Amino acid sequence: MTDNPAPPPDPIEPAESPIVAEPPATAPPWLRAILVVGLLYLFLVGVKLLETGVKGLGEDSAGSLFDGITNPLAALFVGILATVLVQSSSVTTSTIVALVGAGQLPIEVAVPMVMGANIGTTITATIVALAHARRTDEFRKALAAATMHDFFNVIAVAILLPIELIAHPLQNTAAWLSELLPGGADATFDSPIKGVVKWGATKIGDVLEAIFGNGTSLAIALIVVGIAIIFVCLTYITKNMKTLIADRIERSVNASLEKSSMVGMGVGVVVTVAVQSSSITTSIIVPLVASGLLLVRNAYPITLGANVGTTITALIAALAADSSDAMTIALVHLLFNVAGILILYPIRKFRYIPVILAEKLADIAVTRKWIAVAYTLVAFVLIPIVGILVFN
Fold it and tell me: Where residue 59 falls among pLDDT bands split at 50, 70, 90?
């Protein structure tokens, strides 16, 4: 790409937005860079509003899901659905750690719940990808970037859950490691990035609360405003990224990631630990891939790193628990994510199976947009509900 003037907006899209206006076509690169940073911030605020709204609708249901679960398959689906309802695997796994530490949840049941939480957390990026639905090429790349995370976690669960139910390698290894660690202590970590995003979302939430009050009306308003912000920001992020990023920078970024996948994984770990949310990391990847800055396959290791980085919250929560079982289940979460990478990634024949499946789904969904919506609802809502009813 070059510094040619940015193309005019699509006919079906407004040229300006009440939230943010696109800079003039002749805007200098530094101004576009500042705008992209600001748009990314607003985008994350929109994601936070969406998460808060969904959580407001399903928080009570999520809490009740953990009661009376004894079947490991039901526990897997509970982990998926609970994470979808609270929009955070960190919240789900921290809750599981607390319940295990209090002796209210057996480790054998908690392990598949944690695996389910890994699957459920991927819904946020998939929803973000749907915001690109009106632009075919962007949508294909965005949906592939989002759903490769889904497929990786599903494949990892399909391989590791049966092994775990038979021989308990993750639980046994985690129990051994927990004995080597020092006793519990009060430990917290407040992400400054997460705090700034939460501040912006809270300000908007306060305005909406003054208009709609509390309860379901507020939750729906948060969801609608969050989605609106996401749609608008993604539109202008991709437009400005295409103008701002030169071909040589694209080639440089992708070449460095192709040369060493460990770089991408490291980026995923660091960013996720910094923001304490794999959903935020993977949601940021979606517009970067849609705009062409990252190739889908080069973004793949970053999502795997995000899988590992998201375990930090449960580990911190376990440090404050009195029971060694709490640390055991937190370490199971870490070991599961690392084991999934070690099983699928080193062998080239298996490495890109999740990416290939994601790209095939994206190719189909490009011509039939309803399939992407149906996939999201069936995979993250319908199947977990049916699984809980059948197996519990």
Answer: low
